[in-house]
Amino acid sequence: MVKIILLLFFITSCASSRFERSTAPQNDSFLVETTIRFDGKRLNDWAQDNGVLGEATKLCQSGESDKGQQLLKDNLSTFRKDSSYWMVVGNCHWYGNDSAKAEYFYRLALGLGKSSKVTQAIHNNLGLLYMQRQLYPEARSELSKADQSLTAKYNLAQIELLMGNSRGAKSLLAELYRNNRQDPDVLASLAVAHLLDGNNKVALKVLSEVPEIENNRQDISFYKAMGFYLSGNVEKAEEQLNKVDKANETISRLSDMAKKLEQLVQEEVQRREDAAKAAQEAAEAKQASTQG
């Protein structure tokens, strides 16, 4: 049951979408490959240094896809033969929840691709797109083509977790961990791999390595709650679940999983209370029969 919850969480969350939270620069393993975990200031500074394509990326990533697409259209003549341009067009459609158009423009960008860095990024994005559609063989194929991308290795690890292959996931995540031992998403994924193996104490130890600046993230609290629940510490599990805003629609997928875990925790608390009550009643009955 608990493993199913974990797998469902990854299917509907970070395994099938881009990162959806900001991360401090020193903890970001992927900052040279993707802006997706930049906060507003970092994204704005980066956009200023990267011209039209940087500004369009910022607009689309910030929820202003229409403005971003218009800026791209206004500069079509300048970038028509630039694969980076068409990748950004695809990204804007991705942010606008139009994966069909995103795929079309990613393929167009690949046809023009001359830069290995851009080609690697496109294959990673296509892999994510197929993960979203739950087309995991196709996703693996695309991500494997981005063999120099740390982000692609992370996403391949998510597929391994989805397939229940914790050993394969840990092998991929180990390289990322060696590269940066403070990345909260890498640490969280390693923890999940250990949870799937039943190594709950190891999982909690890994989560204890999450830097303090990232420790207030609600997904980290969720993983800790899972670790404590599986270790039998329902009090600590409840404490961590209380840190997750289960009514927040902006993190609805995480909230749904937290609600399901909370139900399991409450059922376990009730089971223990019933067992304790039954034991007490049995002891009282035995004492009464002895006295009688």
The major pleated sheet works out as:
none
Please report the total strand number as a whole number: 0
Shape: elongated
* Topology pattern, helix = H, strand = E: HHHHHHHHHHHHHHHH
Radius of gyration (CA) equals 23 Å
How much of the sequence lies in strands comes to under 5%
Arithmetic mean of pLDDT: 89
Low-pLDDT segments, ≥5 res: 14-19
Helices, by number, come to 16
Structural class: mainly alpha
Distance between the termini: 47 Å
**Range of helix content:** over 70%
Description:
The protein has 292 residues and is an all-alpha fold. 72% of the residues lie in helices and 0% in strands. It has 16 helices and no strands. The chain has helices at residues 2-12, 40-49, 51-61, 65-74, 76-79, 83-95, 99-112, 116-132, 136-145, 150-162, 166-179, 184-197, 200-207, 218-230, 234-241, 252-291. It is elongated, with a radius of gyration of 23 Å. The model is unreliable at 14-19 (pLDDT under 50).
Please provide a brief summary of the model.
This protein has 292 residues and is mainly α. The protein has 16 helices and no strands.
Question: How do the helices and strands line up, and which of them pair or pack?
Answer:
Layout: H1 2-12, H2 40-49, H3 51-61, H4 65-74, H5 76-79, H6 83-95, H7 99-112, H8 116-132, H9 136-145, H10 150-162, H11 166-179, H12 184-197, H13 200-207, H14 218-230, H15 234-241, H16 252-291
